[in-house]
Task: structure prediction
Amino acid sequence: MDNVASESLVERTFQYQSSMPPLPVPSLEMSLSKYLNAVRPFACEDEFKATEDIVRKFQEGVGKELHHKLLQRAKTKKNWLEEWWLDAAYLEVRIPSQLNVNFGGPAPYLEHCWPPEEGTQLQRASISTWHTLQYWDLIRTERLPPQKSGKIVLDMDQFRMLFNTCKVPGVKKDSIRNYFRTEREGPCPSHLIVMCRGRIFTFDAVCDGQILTPPELLRQLSYVKECCEGEPEGDGVAALTSEERTRWALAREHLISIDPQHNNTILETIQSSLFVISLDETTTFSTPENYTSLTMEALTGNPTIRWGDKSYNSLSFADGTFGSTCDHAPYDAMVLVSMCWYLDQQIKDTEGKWRGSGTVRPVPHPEEMVFTVDEKVHSDIRHAKRQYYESTQDLQVVCYAFTAFGKAAIKQKNLHPDTFVQLAMQLAYQKMHKRPGSCYETAMTRKFYHGRTETMRPCTQEAVDWCKTMMDNTCDVDAKRKAMRLAFIKHNKLMSEAQEGNGFDRHLLGLYLTAKEEGQATPELFLDPLYAKSGGGGNFVLSSSLVGYTTVLGAVAPMVHRGYGFFYRIRDDRIVISISAWKSCRETDSASLFNSFCSSLHEMFHLATTSQL
Result:
């Protein structure tokens, strides 16, 4: 009886899903007021007055009508945004997603028990894979505790998408196939995919109801490696996933048509697999202070040994370092961060070793899966690789640790660490480019049913005013201090409101899509030059996100050609930053922005030290 009682007290992963509150629709007046505040830093007086007129007309006319229709939609859907966001942000996008949409990043194990070391790849990969499979089992058996913000439960639906999930290309729109099931729901695929030298293998990660142990996984990975060593590379069909989406959809249709049953079975096996293990022959030369090479490989590595549409590709490099690349459509980075933080803690706690049984059961060898291909498929693969490498060679990435101080010192000054970094980024950009930088920061809306993200815009008028004081030698310390305090207050307020579902960007998107669905002309508000200039419609020059306060970091490509991707993690003693830019844009440079950012951090800390805020 006691066991039953104690079991009922344990919170299950998905037990609160049905009781999560619906995503709210903000008031039209509030959203438009916030929008005007957000565009103000990018406008001269005449431009701003013109935009004010456009907004007023919108609020009194078509905007009111669209808002009413959006409220009607919200009455029938617990999350009025969910389908729209998935389609508009991911599934309808036609540019290649592997480099432009996916997120990737370095694993932090090299900071403790797994420094780069030749000859350790397979042994470490078997242990990393075993811990990953334990995490899958935690979700499948619903023993992963629901995440909370204070006492508020957060939506866990995205955790269903980490394993057994794949995006499938469509000619006009992609789709997501999710094969994951909890134990209560029924059987769940338990096979893995291993890619090596352009070849594809599969084996079951469970034998007689038990997850394979690291020695058993090592045997399977060693078998794959031995099959590939000294042999010609495979066809590299996986490279097709790096292609423009419609082109990949058509190439996939042709691939199936050559040998429908056989080729479709292979595709289905890849799509339904737990995840992909990529055995990469690259050496990454990374350190705890310089993750650049590892981050670059995660984002731009060999396209023939990663399936760009899989929700999780675990990248295992020749020197025993690790990374990942993930399709962004089914979930946001915090899901992967949660798992990678778990892996890091487990690997650290066990000193990267396996202390269990060394017995290896007689499990079947991995099976190689070879597509039936023709000359057109070979031609499609060559084209995919060519466009992929042209794009990757244009990407510039730096990923360094700033070690002068971190969260502990910033909090001692009674300042919010994330806001501190964001304002330093604004100052760094404005010092470099002599203008305000429209900026997207991810705000999490998981307090609501199936909530994902809202946009928080850090380039506020208060932030711009403060940057001006910092760059003005005639301003005294007191003026700079007061301006910084106002910028902090404004940022913290906007972030809090966004997390409560009271941002404005998703609301405006909803109004835009309502008009589109109704067959109406695009409202003038969305055609106004200030809309795009301030970042609207995916035009932010700074695409940023706090990946968290753990050891896990990610990276993304810039949102626009003249922009930057700016991801960061904040530890007690350091801030680790990944910055991306396009080399073909002469205005931008990742390394210069990093240097400017570091000097801005020092300036801010000096200001906070000389005059406590």
